[in-house]
Every structure is written in structure tokens, then in C-alpha cells.
Design a protein that fits this description.
The complex is a heterodimer of chains A (376) and B (270). Chain A has 376 residues and is an alpha/beta fold. Chain A is 71% helix and 9% strand. In chain A, helix 6 packs parallel to helix 9, helix 7 packs parallel to helix 11 and helix 7 packs antiparallel against helix 12. Classes of the chains: A alpha/beta (376), B alpha/beta (270).
């Protein structure tokens, strides 16, 4: 195909004729731009100008725009006329000529100022996050209250479905990681305790650590990653497709219909999973104690039974519902905060998981201080 | 840049067949939506495809562009059997068509301008200012205001989404455009402008238009030929007048029903 060209030819009467030929299409875009620019820079020709397009074999919108641009550039130096275009092509050039180019925006500010703006915005956003969180938490508690006094409908099918997804389907992975973590802690503890000649203390150490802290932490982190992210993505895409608005216009409260079943499922499921996690971590520890420490399973379990009181077990279980509430509320807030774009869905899902895990760990720390101070 | 056999639209005689579908069958599960459909599209024409809901109009379009697998039959685009083309040629053919999806399918995390620039950035070698200008140009070609350039798709009205999506479909100056219900969701004046725009683009760019539509005004105003789908095949095809005369009950109801009488199908209202 003919390469595009733009050559000045001097017409008889001394006016500048710019002869265009070849294919003026987007395929030759970079060629076209440079050719035309070089031609326009040659300033030796005088007005009136004529742009002769008779040699053009193909024209698309890009070519038409460049012709229009050449005409504009030349018109600053004098009168310009267009010639040699077919009827359809003239139409296209005229169509293109109607487009207006907005002036370039102000240059982006640099230096310390935008940094200050970013910091300020981040602080304000964090403040808004807290107030939004508290507001939403309040509406969840209100909905729970309505449920208790019978003003709101319990949706058992929805709760059971969520419970299956949150708890039942989470059992294998949570049991597995807990088993492994229990085993690893037991192994490392045995190595240290053997130096004191007291490897059987591994039962105390692992038992207390797992039941008080690790089981609930592992479970919460896993649930935040598995279910919290799913909640955010589900609610977010429902929000994007106006499904949440549809619910509202039917006179239904999205918190009651969408959020409550999920939070109830978490409230029931997370303690159950914590229990599973505790048991498999202790099982893992028992196995490793047998292999590495020569402590038989009977001795290990007998020691766990003697040393660890009910209160130790309950500390972990008490914390589980609070973790469930934190994860559920954060996941749902982030889900409802999703705006139109796919990117926003992604960033809110990330935020949901990261914030949940962070808050879960902070809450666990607060509980540790609390239980220590009441000597429980 | 890959030049392969891209020839300018002008060098093709109008009347050359650019899309040819022979004995096509497409189905989902047990059900065949399209069964034994044959249809040709000529270069430079505006073909309107009509049919009842579920008659397979969109399925036909998506099968031609390769989004749905067919059970049987032959699809040729620009004379190439789409089952036998190399991956490279297939990409080249895909560059030569533009598609306006029913709901726009704009990339939600890009602004309107970035959406239009996306195919240009991928395929063309444009300088940044020219890229900017071309995006603004396409935007205004489809009747959007320059202010819309920096808005996100989620901030646009239904009609604006259609227009922005058309601008993206036209970004590479395609030879064929597939339009899936282009005027649905537009107000009548907007729809009229849209039709006019499509006709103008056809005339200036030698565009071939494959349009799935229900808009009787578009059918009457700009379509050169109409193909009516039903029972898994083409019930009838030809100019509007010919279809109006067909005895098939669905065609009678469609072209001679009350909505048809109210529209331009029966001559321009005074």
C-alpha cells in the first residue's frame, strides 16, 4: 500500500500547493505525523494555500483529522482551500472539523503540597472510617435487637447457607493449618525444653498457647481471608448491579436481608471453627511430642487434662464471637462502599481482609490485657 | 506494522461479501437456538437483524465474532473461514471489526477517554498529543461532549454509555461494526442522531454495519436490508417493503402491527 506523503508543489500563480498522496489511515499514523510536520515547517511558500488531496487513496478519521490540522496550521499564515477530495471524504473532513479540543488542564502540582494534601486526606478518611464503622455496627446491633424482640424476620435458609459456606467448608483447611502450626510449635518447644531436661512441659506450653491465643487467631485470620473477602465481593457486586437498591425499593432493609444472615453465620461458625482448630493443633502437638520428645500420647493428653483448666479453654471461646463480629462488620461495610468500577471492587475486597486481620489482632491484644488484669 | 492484506475501503467494490454464514447451528445444552441459518452481508451495507426475543439475534452476532462456539456450519469473514484461520490472522481480522455490546462493556476502571484510547494504544503508533486528539475526536463523532472524556463509565447515563462504547468500537476505524441493540435505551431524538451517525460513518468510511435492533425507525431509516430471524433460521431477508409483504405471521405482526404503524415504517409522518 502506498506510503503517505505531503509535498509542496508550486502552482503557476505562486501560491503554495500542498500535495497529499498515499494512504492516510491509522496504520501509517507515525509516518503521517512526521511527514506532515516536516511539510508544515517549510515556511517558504506564500498564501493563498491549497491542500490538494487528489492523490489520497484511502482516508480514515485519523487521516481526515490530520488534514484538518494541516488546514488549521496553514490558516494562521493565510487563506487555505481544500481540493481534490471525493464527496464522502469531504464529508468526513468536515465532520471531523467540528470537534473541539479542550484546552490542556493546569499542570499537576509537585513538591510538598500534594504530599500534605494526601496525608490530610488519609487522616480525614481514617476518621470517616471509624464513624462509618460505628454507625454500621449500630445498625447491625439494632437489627439484631429487632430480631430478638421479633420485629425482624429471621431467615433460617439464608443463615444455614452462609453457615455451610463459612463453617463447614472451612473445616478442612482450618483443621489442616492448625494441625501443622500445633506440630511446629511443639517441635520447637521440645528442642528448647530438652535443654532443661523437662520436655514434657511441651503439653502445658502448647495447650495454653493454642487454647488461649493461637486457635482463635488462626481461625479468625483464615475466616477473614475466606469468608470476609467473599462477603465483600458479593455485597460489592450486588451494589454495582443495583441489586441493593432493588432490595431497598421493595421496602426491605439490606442490613436485615444481607448482613444479618452473614453475621449470624459468623457468630455461630467462628466459635465452632475455633474449637476444631484447638483440637487439631493439640493433636498435631501430641504427634510431634511422641516423635521428637519421646512423650507418649497417653502421657501428653493426661498432662493436658491435668494442667489446663476450663478457664483457659473458655478464654479462646469467649473471644471467637467478638472476632466474628469484627470480621463480619468490616466485610459488609467494605462491600457496601464499592462504587461502579471493577477496580473499586478489588480495592475494597483487599481493604476488607487487611482491616479485618489488623483489627482481629488488635482486639486479641486488648483481650490478653483484659484477661491478665482480671487474672482469669 | 502488520500490513497483511489490508486494502483501503475504496478499492473494494460495494457488493463484495464480507461476512458469509452457511448452514449455521448453535445451541446450548439440548436446545438449538440457531439451526441451519445462512446469511450474507455485503460490503458497505447496513444490515438490520430482527427477531423475537430469544430468536438468536445476539447469539448469531456472538457466533460470528467467535464468542460462542458453533455446532455446525461455516462462518467466513473477509473471505476467511474463521475455523481455519491462524491465530495471527484472526487477530488481524479482529482489528478490522468493532463491536458495540448491548450494555456497552466499557472498562469500568478506565475513564471514557482511556476506554477509547485503549485499542489505539494497543495497535497504533500515535504520539501522545495525537492520541489525545483522536480520542476527543471519536468522542465528539459519536455526539458526546468533551466534558464526558474524564468521567468514569459508572457516572454515565445509559445513552452516554452506548455512545462511549460506539466510540471505542470505532477507535481503529474498523471495516465492519457489529451493533447489538445500539438505540435501545436512547431517547427518540438521540436514537435518530445515532442512526444518522451510523449512516454517515457508513458513507464516509465504507463501513459495513451488522445491526441487531428492535428500533423500527432505524430499520426504516437507515437499514439497506433486513434479515428476520425465527425458528432458528432466517425467515426472510430483503428490503423493508419486501418483508412487510411476507405472509409469515410473526413478520406480519412485527412490520404491520400498531407500533410499526406509528413509526416511520409506514412512510414519514407529516
Amino acid at each position: 500500500m502506498a506510503r503517505p506523503s505531503a509535498i509542496w508543489g508550486d502552482a503557476a500563480r505562486g501560491s503554495g500547493v500542498l500535495q497529499l498522496s498515499g494512504a492516510w489511515t491509522a496504520d501509517h499514523a507515525s509516518d503521517l505525523e512526521t511527514t506532515l510536520e516536516t511539510a508544515l515547517k517549510q515556511g517558504s511558500f506564500a498564501a493563498p494555500f491549497r491542500i490538494d488531496c487528489a492523490g489520497i487513496v484511502a482516508l480514515d478519521t485519523l487521516g481526515a483529522w490530520l488534514i484538518h490540522r494541516a488546514r488549521l496550521a496553514l490558516s494562521e499564515r493565510g487563506e487555505v482551500s481544500l481540493a481534490g477530495l471525493k464527496r464522502d471524504q469531504t464529508h468526513l473532513v468536515e465532520e471531523v472539523a467540528q470537534a473541539q479540543m479542550p484546552p490542556a488542564g493546569p499542570p499537576r502540582a509537585t513538591g510538598a503540597y500534594p504530599l500534605l494534601v494526601d496525608v490530610g486526606e488519609a487522616v480525614v478518611d481514617a476518621g470517616k472510617d471509624v464513624s462509618k464503622g460505628v454507625t454500621f455496627f449500630g445498625s447491625v446491633i439494632a437489627a439484631l435487637g429487632r430480631l430478638v424482640i421479633g420485629r425482624a424476620k429471621l431467615r433460617p435458609a439464608a443463615v444455614i447457607t452462609q453457615l455451610e459456606r463459612v463453617a463447614l467448608r472451612g473445616v478442612p483447611i482450618i483443621a489442616l493449618i492448625s494441625f501443622l502450626v500445633g506440630a511446629i510449635i511443639a517441635q520447637q518447644s521440645i528442642f528448647q525444653l530438652q535443654r532443661f531436661g523437662q520436655p514434657h512441659f511441651v503439653a502445658d506450653l502448647v495447650g495454653v498457647l493454642v487454647l488461649r491465643e493461637l486457635a482463635v487467631l488462626l481461625t479468625s485470620i483464615m475466616v477473614a481471608g475466606r469468608s470476609g473477602s467473599a462477603f465483600t465481593a458479593e455485597l460489592g457486586s450486588m451494589k454495582m448491579r443495583e441489586e441493593v437498591d432493588a432490595l431497598q425499593t421493595m421496602g426491605l432493609d439490606p442490613v436485615e436481608v444481607l448482613v444479618l444472615p452473614r453475621i449470624l453465620a459468623l457468630l455461630i461458625g467462628l466459635p465452632l471453627l475455633t474449637f476444631v482448630s484447638s483440637m487439631s493443633a493439640i493433636a498435631g502437638a501430641a504427634l510431634v511430642a511422641d516423635i521428637y520428645g519421646g512423650i507418649s500420647m497417653e502421657i501428653f493428653f493426661a498432662r493436658v487434662q491435668n494442667i489446663i483448666g476450663m478457664n483457659t479453654f473458655m478464654v479462646g471461646m469467649y473471644k471467637a464471637p467478638f472476632m466474628a463480629l469484627v470480621i463480619g462488620v468490616i466485610a459488609c461495610i467494605e462491600g457496601f462502599a464499592v462504587r461502579g468500577s471493577a477496580e473499586s471492587l478489588g480495592s475494597h475486597t483487599t481493604a476488607s481482609v487487611v482491616k479485618s486481620i489488623f483489627v482481629v489482632i488488635v482486639v486479641d491484644g486488648l483481650f490478653a490485657m483484659f484477661f491478665a488484669s482480671i487474672r482469669y | 506494522m502488520d500490513q497483511m492484506d489490508r486494502t483501503p475501503p475504496e478499492s473494494h467494490a460495494r457488493g463484495e461479501t464480507v461476512i458469509s454464514v452457511e448452514d449455521l447451528a448453535v445451541g446450548f445444552g439440548e436446545r438449538l437456538v440457531i439451526d441451519g441459518l445462512s446469511l450474507d452481508v455485503q460490503r458497505g451495507e447496513i444490515l438490520g437483524v430482527v427477531g423475537a426475543s430469544g430468536s438468536g439475534k445476539s447469539v448469531l452476532m456472538r457466533t460470528i465474532i467467535g464468542l460462542i462456539r458453533k455446532r455446525r456450519g461455516l462462518v467466513r469473514v473477509f473471505g476467511h473461514d474463521m475455523d481455519r484461520v491462524s491465530a495471527q490472522r484472526r487477530r488481524f481480522i479482529e482489528r478490522r471489526w468493532g463491536i458495540l455490546f448491548q450494555h456497552g462493556a466499557l472498562f469500568s476502571s478506565l475513564t471514557v477517554k482511556q476506554n477509547i484510547q485503549f485499542p489505539m494504544r494497543e495497535y497504533l503508533d500515535l504520539s501522545p498529543p495525537l492520541l489525545e486528539e483522536m480520542a476527543m475526536l471519536k468522542l465528539q463523532l459519536v455526539g458526546l461532549k468533551p466534558e464526558a472524556a474524564n468521567r468514569m463509565p459508572s457516572e454515565l447515563s445509559g445513552g452516554m454509555i452506548k455512545r462511549a462504547a460506539l466510540a471505542r468500537a470505532l477507535a481503529l476505524d474498523p471495516e465492519i461494526v457489529f451493533l447489538d441493540e445500539p438505540t435501545s435505551g436512547l431517547d427518540p431524538i438521540g436514537a435518530g442522531d445515532f442512526d444518522e451517525l451510523i449512516a454517515t460513518l457508513r458513507n464516509t468510511l465504507g463501513l459495513t454495519v451488522f445491526m441487531v435492533t428492535h428500533d423500527l425507525d432505524s430499520l426504516a431509516g437507515i437499514c439497506d436490508r433486513i434479515a428476520a430471524l425465527g425458528e432458528g433460521r432466517v425467515l426472510s431477508q430483503g428490503p423493508l417493503e419486501q418483508l412487510k409483504a411476507e405472509p409469515h405471521p410473526w413478520l406480519q405482526a412485527y412490520f404491520n402491527g400498531p407500533r410499526a404503524r406509528a413509526s416511520h415504517v409506514h412512510g414519514k409522518p407529516a
